[in-house]
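Crash report, auto-generated. Payload:
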Amino acid sequence: MSNSSILKSSIAKKYWMALTGLFLCTFLIGHLLGNLQLIFIDGEEGRRAFNEYAYFMTHNPAIKILSYLTYISILFHAVDGFILTVQNKKARPVNYAVNNPGPTSSTPARYMAVLGTLILVFIATHMANFWWKVKFSQEIPLHTYKIESKQEMNIPKGQSFYYTQVPSIQPIPKDTNTLEEKGTAIYYKNTNIKIADCYIDLHKVVMAFFGKSNPNGIFGVLFYVLSMLVLAFHLWHGFASAFQSLGVNHAKWTPIIKNLGKGFAIIVPLLFALIPILIYLNN
Ligand code: HEM
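Recovered output after restart:
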């Protein structure tokens, strides 16, 4: 490839990195708002709110499209970033930016690739902890909320239950001969008689993951807090740099964007980090 075509392809890559990076920033805001319910709404109300939210996020068709765009953006951003780093290294075999940092090269700018790789490790671990369980594992318990109609049931020995932690609600036997799940509810089979609302209990999974009752909970908390520090450094440089790659270079707007980026880089990871810390302290 000639020098000019390498340059052209690098510019295109930077452009796509900027677009996917900014899209991922909007994902972070949505994800943060949803997860803040874990610490700002207490008790059964919080549990229900979070489980309903998680159900909506995994079943709404528009959100599903956004989810696929998120996965594609993460992969694109990571692969493009890797190729750009390799191309830059080849173009400058002597890594003078590290050995001889100029006044314009801030520490995060020099370590973006390393920070990005650490974030990728975080995302892979994080998705294995929660996302994988929601999508592919049968381990997550169902949580029932309210029984709307009660009928006498014979519960054979060894029967499994739709269990509930609401004291006034009795466990409902998971009898597939008489019951069926439709959407977020349990019905008597082949009838419209609803017994209970029923959601995958992701709230319990998150609380158990970070809570003190989990002997490894503290390591989970530390891993998340350190990862949010890494995310903060990555965003500190990345947010404003994305606008620069898209060609936004304006006497009035660029300083505003830079300050906005710094605010974003502090507030978003800080709030994310508070979630596991407060869950640990309160559970
Ligand atoms: C510390 C706070 C966080 C908590 C408690 C949390 C919790 C969760 C949970 C419960 C899920 C699975 C739910 C679902 O699939 O809808 C999930 C999915 C996900 N999380 Fe997080 N998360 C946190 C921070 C982050 C951060 C900082 C990132 C990115 C840097 C991230 C990236 C993702 C991604 C990409 C998914 C898959 C989303 C999808 O399928 O649409 N999370 N998170």
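Post-recovery validation: The radius of gyration is 24 Å.
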